[in-house]
Amino acid sequence: MPRFGIRKTVHNFITDYIGDGDFDDDVALEDLGLDKKDIMELITRLEDEYGLTAFTSEEDKLLEQAVTANDLWRFLQQITRH
């Protein structure tokens, strides 16, 4: 799966949540107004988009570690390898 495609999709999905696409992918998701519930919904939408399923322990780990949009697309890249 192309890295750029994943990154663009993550950016677009976050834009849907916050209503503005003018943000840097290194900015904390919480600083963009997303809470843990929003992040979990975002992960679910991204999994659906790519036909992926992460194990619950992986999702829990992501929730603890997902701080930025970059973290989300790196996670998606990781679970596509399983």
Report on this model:
- By secondary structure, the chain is mostly helical.
- The protein has one domain: Non-ribosomal Peptide Synthetase Peptidyl Carrier Protein, Chain A (Orthogonal Bundle), CATH 1.10.1200.
- 65% of the residues lie in helices and 0% in strands.
- It contains 4 helices and no strands.
- The radius of gyration is 12 Å and the shape is globular.
- 20% of the residues are buried.
- The mean pLDDT is 84.
Give the low-pLDDT segments: none
Pattern of helices and strands:
HHHH
In the CATH hierarchy, what is the architecture at level 2? Orthogonal Bundle
Please state the structural category: mainly alpha
Which helices and strands occur, and which strands form pairs?
Layout: H1 3-18, H2 36-50, H3 56-65, H4 69-80
Helix pairs in contact: 1-2, 1-4
InterPro entries: ACP-like_sf, PP-bd_ACP
Organism: Pseudomonas eucalypticola
Protein name: Acyl carrier protein
Summarize the structure.
The chain contains four helices and no strands. By secondary structure, the protein is mostly helical.
Offer a few descriptive terms:
mainly alpha, ACP-like_sf, Acyl carrier protein, PP-bd_ACP, 82 residues, Non-ribosomal Peptide Synthetase Peptidyl Carrier Protein, Chain A
